[in-house]
Task: structure prediction
Amino acid sequence: MKPNSPKYQSKPGFKVPDDYFSSLEDKLMRRIDAENKADLPDMGSGFTVPEGYFDTLEEQILSKTNRPSKVVSLFKKEYLYYAAAIAAIFVLMLGNFFQAEQPQNLGWDDVEITEIEDYFDEDYNMSYMEWNTTEYSDLMFDDARLIYEEDFNNVDSEAVFDYLDENIEDPTYIFE
Result:
């Protein structure tokens, strides 16, 4: 092995005469022109244009591209259909909202006493009152009732029904 020898040879094995590449292009072009002229007959370019064609070309192109523009209407029939649908929905909703209800003549006979008692026993939240059994039994009267019929004589029926309507979750219990 040679120490510090370059990996590739610094001098190539090909030699070209001086000014070879400077005149090579001219020589090739002259030779190609001479061969092409000898092989091909003189036929012209092959393209012909009628006289005055380019004088009217611009007008012909513009006449084909300048079509009358479409008029876009601001009022479409679709908008009329949408407005009619919205008006119909509005009328139906108003009809349902202002539906005439038949007056119900309700009285205390329509509400059962057991339902009111069940409401107070089960649903009424009396957590703010901490009564024990003896205090609760002191409020009961002799026949184990908290309320008597006479207590309802001075009560406005409409106010009671409004109160029950607002505070009872299932209003069907009122009329059973």
Q: What stands out?
A: The CA atoms of residues 134 and 152 lie 26 Å apart. The longest helix spans residues 77-97. The chain has a mean pLDDT of 74. Residues 113-173 form one domain.
